[in-house]
Amino acid sequence: MTSGAKTGGGRFFEDYRVGETIRHAVPRTLTVGERALYHALYPARHALHSSDSFARACGLAAAPLDDLIVFHTVFGKSVPDISLNAVANLGYAEGRWLSPVWPGETITAESEVIGLRQLSSGKAGIVWVRTRGFADGRPCLSYVRWVMVRRRAPGEAPEAVVPELAEAVAASDLVVPEGLDFGGYDFALAGEPHRLSDYAVGEIIDHVDGVTVEEAEHMMATRLWQNTARVHFDATAREDGRRLIYGGHVISLARALSFNGLANAQTIVALNGGAHANPCFAGDTVRAWSEVLDRANLGNDIGALRLRLVATRGAAGQLRDDAGAYRPDVLLDLDCWALIPA
Amino acid sequence: MTSGAKTGGGRFFEDYRVGETIRHAVPRTLTVGERALYHALYPARHALHSSDSFARACGLAAAPLDDLIVFHTVFGKSVPDISLNAVANLGYAEGRWLSPVWPGETITAESEVIGLRQLSSGKAGIVWVRTRGFADGRPCLSYVRWVMVRRRAPGEAPEAVVPELAEAVAASDLVVPEGLDFGGYDFALAGEPHRLSDYAVGEIIDHVDGVTVEEAEHMMATRLWQNTARVHFDATAREDGRRLIYGGHVISLARALSFNGLANAQTIVALNGGAHANPCFAGDTVRAWSEVLDRANLGNDIGALRLRLVATRGAAGQLRDDAGAYRPDVLLDLDCWALIPA
Amino acid sequence: MTSGAKTGGGRFFEDYRVGETIRHAVPRTLTVGERALYHALYPARHALHSSDSFARACGLAAAPLDDLIVFHTVFGKSVPDISLNAVANLGYAEGRWLSPVWPGETITAESEVIGLRQLSSGKAGIVWVRTRGFADGRPCLSYVRWVMVRRRAPGEAPEAVVPELAEAVAASDLVVPEGLDFGGYDFALAGEPHRLSDYAVGEIIDHVDGVTVEEAEHMMATRLWQNTARVHFDATAREDGRRLIYGGHVISLARALSFNGLANAQTIVALNGGAHANPCFAGDTVRAWSEVLDRANLGNDIGALRLRLVATRGAAGQLRDDAGAYRPDVLLDLDCWALIPA
Q1: How far is CA C234 from the centre of its chain?
Q2: Which of B65, B205, B218 to probe by mutation at the C interface, max C CB count within 10 Å?
């Protein structure tokens, strides 16, 4: 029996060239159906994404799709071309949400290779890509990520190109959705009274609740983004018989949990960085805490909070051990900007 | 590390005042997405909520959202303000659906405190609220529930106010959706031939089927209503490591199962009372049976059946033991009115 | 306590008459909500059903609902009348998709009894039905299936009528959706470069990925089609305490997995035959492979591939043992036509 002639095995390190742009396959129309699933899979409660009437009172035409729905969809599109043979997802930088996405719009995505560096072992290399998402052709998201990708076969290293990446998106580069205005913001309807000035840099917020994760949930979520990386679905893919939970599932869990204490941080507009510190598996009870890293006032009564959003397997607590490594119960260390009434 | 300064712990008994009205947070736009999930999570088949064409033939503009979608959404909104520190959900009364809710409408909710009585122990008290739901501002649901809520600290009891509640909603107070007419009702399409006059008071109907419940299902359902009570999601919340299933999940399971024998009891219009007799956990196989308690003719070929809807963990059978207590396999004892062709 | 008076037990073999047409209950409006769930429950990625913009570029008004959403909905409607007392689902034939179905349309279904043959044991018989589905009244699907149904009581055999069924739908009988044109087909967006002429009769395609199935997933899927056959939901229904997974769940899993290698086989238009070779249970890891059985050119740059789509519990491999029986790890052997750019 023949096999594999029609199915590509994904790209390997030696298949990437700095400067090339890869158009990702399978455009995806997102609707209120995907939103309903998002709200069933995560305890998402931020009012701007939950309610058309609340969004209208904030100057928008309707509730835009949750920021992370857009992220996961664009990310999922990139998986077959970028990370099918990845050993590790190493980091994110310079992520910006450029436009709200409305139900009924179709997402397409592409990635530009902006860096390559082969490991000294010669068995793998690091690939940096700037991935761009479009909604009905309009830019809606852009971010850099870098992954370690295996070589198909040993070979000469390409010239190393390591991009210079901003440590964080500057507040002045944050894109506020057109029309957004927090002048008439209803804090009671939003769920908490805290505005920008109520948060202090260095403040830590425990998001209190925990969610024990089930296999069916993370697989449904990951499929919804048409992310088909085998390790998330096939219990025979790993020697230990466990399915590795898509790192983005943990991001969405942590973000949704952050409603407790950050209910007014309505929408994520930038991803400054992030590390999936340890793998997450079904049965884990995920909790989250945040640290306020920075604040900015953007006008129209809109402020921005730069947040470190941490997901843990246990209680909220320390991030790193004495040696500076992530503690074993830390799952995620994300650095992002979110908009909040000023 | 600081903690909890931004996250409220919910109200305690001493925080309620008779006469105050609490606006609940996070308005929620309900769509065909939430309906699809409802039909994936429960074996819901009543034709009026399943088919636009069937609903049109009954005089409505389209299929309204399932009555219990509206109930769960309104209930979920009330949880952070009413039952976050509740020890027990004690009862329901005077529940009435006041208007159909259509896909695309936004639900808001508020609760008026109508009764308070501190327990003699001084550690907790009973809070009665009348919760009202609105769809795009239009009243769509109203019901009374009472819960036992812990005190934060011991203290003097407030003056006891215990509301007088109707034993059941009078048939003359039932609200028939505007335009509804069962004159041209198609019993074959609805699935069963039985009309109002085919049901006798005292008759018992075994709904036959059973559903074994999974953790992922009840958590997705409960999240969908933005009900974030910790015991439903966090396996570490209880000493026995089990997640308590939201009582409303059992209501919806039983109502959906009741299609077998009550396929023409198309829509619930009143909740006269209800008790969550025993807790339900994943792995339980839920069955249901109903008893006809009363009948009424409302005109336009529309009748109403008052039903006791019982969910059990085992076979359909007796409700109470010789001492009058609910038998251990009884999960739910609900008293409601539903509309049926006369 | 009375029981069962209001709930039918379904039809038995002696209740069918050749020539009668049974209208199935509960019309169902399908929306983008059902589509989102389909894409969460299966790794479905065929671009025509995923993206309005891709579908428009192929001459359609928008992305039609996935072909198997329509199949499962029509099939589910027929279960209470045809297979509630079935011992086995024996086969399919002459299945044709007659029109795309668009979000918002309402599905109704009916079945005509076209054959009956009592077994020599006198305890059961085979019932052949031609089931027809309609979308807002327009024919959208037609197929024959035959099932073995128990007799309620022993009795005289009806005259045996065994329909003559086509071994496969002729290519000239395939219905191409009105307006479909693959002239400007974008292979990069679709995900693979292979067109009709790239596939050879006899070629075998391993679809590579595997999915480990969870109870919550197959139950949600099966409920979504309002298919309430007890064995799929009630862990107490079988002596071994296992829930039998709806055969259609395996069909959808295999079809979605077939994206790897058949990404351009955009939509199924005929079901020539099929066997659920062995039962599937939660915990099984489902894989799939296809064999090209035939090819045809239909005009407008549209071709058709006749495919044997096989789902297995283990690795892709042989279909039958030396004695000609399905090997124990084979779950599904489906014979269908799908449209692909010529």
Answers
A1: 23
A2: B205
Task: With CB atoms and an 8 Å threshold, state whether A37 touches C32.
Answer: no
> What domains lie within chain B, and their CATH numbers?
13-154+166-341 (3.10.129.10)
The model's confidence at residue A317, banded by pLDDT at 50, 70 and 90, is: low
| A3/C316 touch (CB, cutoff 8 Å), yes or no | yes
Establish if B212 touches chain A: CB-CB under 8 angstroms: no
State the chains in contact with A (3 or more Cβ–Cβ pairs under 8 Å): B, C
* Contact state of C6 with B262 under an 8 Å Cβ cutoff: yes
To the nearest whole Å, the CA of C187 is away from the closest chain A CA by 9
Q: Give the chain C residue whose CA is nearest to the CA of B41.
A: C220
Which tokens sit at B190? Answer: 């609805």
Name the pLDDT band for C5 (thresholds 50, 70, 90). Answer: confident
Q: Average pLDDT of A248-256? A: 98
Check: CB of residue A44 under 8 Å from CB of residue A72.
no
Tell me what the pLDDT averaged over chain C comes to: 95
CA–CA separation, C207 and C254 (whole Å): 9
What's the angle, vertex CA A267, arms to CA A264 and CA A268, rounded to 5?
125
Assess C39–B contact: CB distance below 8 Å, yes or no: no
Q: Quick check: C316 pLDDT over 80?
A: no
Weakest-pLDDT range from B18-27, B227-236, C95-104, C316-325: C316-325
What angle in degrees, to the nearest 10, is found between the helix axes of C215-224 and A215-224? 60
Q: What's the pLDDT score for residue C107?
A: 98
DSSP line for C204-234: EEE----EE--HHHHHHHHHHTT---GGGT-
Give this complex's ipTM. Answer: 0.95
Residue B335's DSSP bridge partners are B273, B308
pLDDT of residue A181: 96
CB-based contacts of A164, cutoff 8 Å, min separation 6: none
CB within 8 Å of B123: residues ≥ 6 apart: B150, B151, B154
The pLDDT of residue A3: 45
The subunits that touch chain C, with at least 3 C-beta pairs less than 8 Å apart, are A, B
Closest C-alpha among B210, B277, B284, B212 to residue B242: B284
Residue-level pLDDT at C317: 67
Cβ-based contacts under 8 A for chains B and C: 141
Q: How far apart are CA A61 and CA A52, in angstroms?
A: 8
CA separation for the pair A38, B330 (Å, rounded): 33
Residue whose structure tokens are 């790239």: C198
- Asked if A240 is an interface residue toward chain C (Cβ–Cβ < 8 A), one would say no
Q: Which chains touch B (3 or more CB pairs under 8 A)?
A: A, C
Cβ-proximal residues to B284 (8 Å cutoff; 6+ apart), any chain: B212, B213, B245, B313, B331
* Closest CB to B39 among C104, C219, C224: C224
Buried b (16+ CB within 10 A) or exposed e, B80-118: bbbbbbbeebebbbbbbbbbbbbbebbbbbbbbbbbbbb
Q: For chain A, what percent of residues have pLDDT higher than 70? A: 98
CB contact under 8 A, C210 and A223: no
User: By the CB < 8 Å criterion, does A33 face chain C?
Assistant: yes
The answer, yes or no, to whether residue C306 has pLDDT greater than 80, is yes
| String of DSSP letters for C238-301 | STT--PPPPHHHHHHHHHHHTHHHHTT--EEEEEEEEE--S---TT-EEEEEEEEEEEEEEETT
Q: How far is C165 from chain A (nearest CA, A)?
A: 31
Residue C275 has pLDDT above 90, yes or no: yes
- The whole-chain average pLDDT of chain B stands at 95
Q: What is the CA angle B141-B144-B148, rounded to 5?
A: 140
Looking at the partner chain, which of B37, B104, B235 has a beta carbon nearest the beta carbon of A36?
B37
Contact C1 B194 (CB under 8 A): no
